[in-house]
Amino acid sequence: MRSGAKVAVVGGVFVLVAGGVGYGAYSVLGGDGDGGGKVASRNATPEVRTGPPSAEEITEASKSFFDAWAAGDAASAALLTNNEAGAEPVLASYGEAAHIGKVKITPGPAVGTKVPFTVKATVSYGGKSKPLSYASELTVVRGLTTGKALVDWEPTVVHPQLTEGATLKTGESSTAAIEAVDRNGTVLTKEKYPSLGPILDTLRQKYGATSGGSPGIETWIEAARDGQADISLLTLAKGKPGKVQTTLDAGAQAAAEQAVKKFAQASVVAVKPSTGAIRAVANNPATEFNVAMQGKQAPGSTLKIMTAALLLEKGLVTANGAAECPKDAMWQGRSFHNLNNFSLPDGSSFTQSFAQSCNTAFIKLIDDVNDDSALAKEARDVFGIGLDWKTGVVSTDGSVPEEVGGEAAAQYIGQGTVQMNALNMASITATAITGTFQQPVIVPKSLDNRELAHASRSLSPSVVQQLKTMMRATAAWGTGAKPMATVGGDKGAKTGSAEVDGQETSNSWFTGFSNDLAAAAVVQTGGHGGDAAGPVVAEVLRAGG
After folding, report:
1. Distances (CA, A) of 170 to 125, 135, 136, 174, 354
2. pLDDT for 483-495, tens place per residue?
3. CA 202, 283, 115 angle in degrees (round to 5)?
4. For residue 73, what are the contacts with CB-CB under 8 A and spacing of at least 6?
5. Which pLDDT score, from 0 to 100, does residue 526 have?
6. Is 70 exceeded by the pLDDT of residue 110?
7. pLDDT (0 to 100) of residue 177
8. pLDDT above 90 as % of the chain
9. Alpha carbon distance 379, 406 (integer Å)
10. I need a surface site. Which of 78, 437, 449, 482 has the fewest CB within 10 A?
11. What percentage of residues in the chain have a pLDDT greater than 70?
12. Contact 545, 517 (CB under 8 A)
């Protein structure tokens, strides 16, 4: 036997020991005393566990991760995730670049494999300190190769607003803070108007350097890509903010914020038709993605404003002329029907079909248009859709692609490949009642002399008058009457219910105007336009602006 090696008998098992450390160990397993026992190596690869982690594993894995993170041990914390290479630099930057210390993490009860938690910490830089607190969550998964319970790595584990490639930093801010004001000089803050968060961040990034301010000391999330706005999290020492003028109206903005909170997912935008000035933008939930100005989805029958303009311009209908409205209609093998399969009596006017949102009245006129691309041209040439809008912040300017056959027919009633958001529909309404597209802006052109988009032509006064007649009827006795009953002034509206594949209840759309203010809203899975989105628009229009 090798010198220094010892044989020990432990519970009937022979173990070869060298220097107090077992190696080459074996157990004699089983047997009935007949020498038939099996020999198994204790160095055999253990079986990898599978299946969802147990409650005990979730608690243990999350606690170990929290302990390492709070201790500032980025390497150990990263080892407890399923992406060590991705996690370690982010966790290391928490203390090194963001200067966040004295970290206390308090987990809440696990919900399945998710563990919510709160973070309370202190940011210290340049002799300044300030507390930082927030909530986030993590998910515990089983490692594919090890079978161990591990934290499923996402940057949002470290901070809920941290995205892939973005970094947490503390220091002298790269751009001066701004004091954004509404059209009357009222200061606008993300604390009072949560929906303005991403807008104010973008305005600071674009105009902070030229606004006359000086930088302070802050903690922020630096965006992963150029063009994206940094997100300010904490101010340790204030600089001198520069003033940035916006077109917003504080009263309309407050009403918009209040209106969208009544629904789980809702967006609204208000614009001044005569100038294109954006008066209010609100989303619920208020996130870094500004759905009201960046969203892309079918707007349903609200787009009939544009389709009606096309049909009126081509002389195929008049507001008071007759238009068929059967309960269903077929176009190139695709069937279209009205809500609850309603129909209107023979001799009913086009205004009645518009006000009652009759789909088939529009579908039956496609043959007479004799141009599948006509709606796409109308969208671009008259309503400015698809042009490069320079609103002053990130926005999407809508899309009506050229289509053929049944897909082109679906566009006539705001379905198919049409993509809009609340800003686009508010602008379409504004153009319809003035006749001329005014590109929406949230900061004046004079701020940076940027080139605004211009449509190639306007609607004739006759078409404008007929569109207003039909929208007024919708607000007076049509599908928009109930929500618009509380709105004063010269008013009109159009409702929409946009069907979405795989979604049981349609999205609720509504657009309307009162005097020189137009607004549009969408409520996800809100059903009929007048039921959900209508009250949102009405509340904003009542606030004026």
Report:
1. 7, 19, 20, 10, 56
2. 999 999 999 999 9
3. 90
4. none
5. 96
6. yes
7. 84
8. 80
9. 19
10. 449
11. 91
12. yes
Beta carbons of 301 and 356 less than 8 angstroms apart = no
Nearest-CA neighbor of 506 among 259, 297, 337?
Answer: 297
Token representation of residue 479 = 């599908």
Cβ(415)–Cβ(443) below 8 Å: no
d(CA 449, CA 80): 52
For 41-185, where are the alpha helices, taking DSSP H only?
55-70, 74-79, 84-96
Dihedral of the alpha carbons of 369, 370, 376, 381, in degrees to the nearest 10: -70
Determine how β-strand 217-222 pairs with β-strand 5-10: unpaired
pLDDT of 17 above 70: no
Token pair 């909170």 is found at 261
DSSP H/E element including 378: helix 374-381
Name 17's bridge partners.
6, 22
Distance separating alpha carbons of residues 260 and 540, to the nearest angstrom: 10
- Distance between start and end Cα atoms, the chain: 96
Give residue 50's region: left, alpha or beta (phi > 0; psi -120 to 50): beta
Q: How many CB atoms lie within 10 A of CB 143?
A: 15
Answer yes or no: is pLDDT of 1 > 50: no
337 touches 282 (CB < 8 A)? no
Q: What are phi and psi of 223, to 5 degrees?
A: -60, 150
- Cβ neighbors of 282 (< 8 A, separation 6 or more) are 193, 195, 253, 256, 257, 259, 260, 267, 268, 269, 292
User: 139 Cβ partners below 8 Å, 6+ apart?
Assistant: 113, 114, 115, 151, 152
